[in-house]
Amino acid sequence: MARHIFLTGPKQVGKTTLLRAALADFPGSVGGFCTLRTRAYLGDAWSVHLLRPGRGEAPGPQNLLFVCGAADGETAARFDRLGTAALAEGAGRDVLLMDELGPHEARAAVFRQAVLAALDGVVPILGVLQAAPSPFLEEVALHPQVRLIQVTAENRDAPALLAALRAAAAGRGGL
C-alpha cells in the first residue's frame, strides 16, 4: 500500500482545498510547505512564495521563489534553500505537506533530492503534483510509495477521497 498521496489535475479544481480539509482537524504536527501565487507582495506582478504550515507567514522577500514571467536565474537556488529547509524541518513531524511540486524545480538539484529522500522515508506525505511535463514530476508520480490521484470537478467532493487523505495523513495508507 502506498504511504504517500499526491493529487493532480487541472488548475483551480480544488487540490489544495482538499489537502487543507484533510489536515484541518489533524491532531498531529504538519511540516513541509505550501506554495502561494499572489499579487499581494508585488502588486503589479504575480509572485510565488514557499510558506510553511502553521507559521502564518505573509508573502515577502524571505520566502519568494520566483516572479511569474521573469527569469532571474535565482529560482533553483531559492528552491534549494527554502524547500530543502522546509523538508528538513518537517522530517520530525507526523505528516509532510508538499503543495505543490511543478516544473520550476527542474534545476533545483538539492531540493529534488530532498523530495526523493522524503519519499523514501517513513513520514506520510500529502502533496500536489502540477499536471505538467517534467522528468522530476514523473519520477515522483512513479515512486513505489506514491499513490497519484486525479482530481476532477466530478470527484473532488467525494467523501471517500477526503477519507483517504485523512487516513494517509494518520499513517494508515490511502485508497
TrEMBL record:
Keyword Cytoplasm annotated: no
SUPFAM superfamilies, alphabetized: P-loop containing nucleoside triphosphate hydrolases
UniProt keyword annotations, A-Z: ATP-binding, Hydrolase, Kinase, Nucleotide-binding, Transferase
UniProt-listed Gene3D superfamilies: P-loop containing nucleotide triphosphate hydrolases
Sample GO molecular function, one term: ATP binding
InterPro entries in the cross-refs: Nuc-triphosphatase_THEP1 (IPR004948), P-loop_NTPase (IPR027417)
Pfam (any one): NTPase_1
PANTHER family: CANCER-RELATED NUCLEOSIDE-TRIPHOSPHATASE
Name used for this protein in its record: Nucleotide kinase
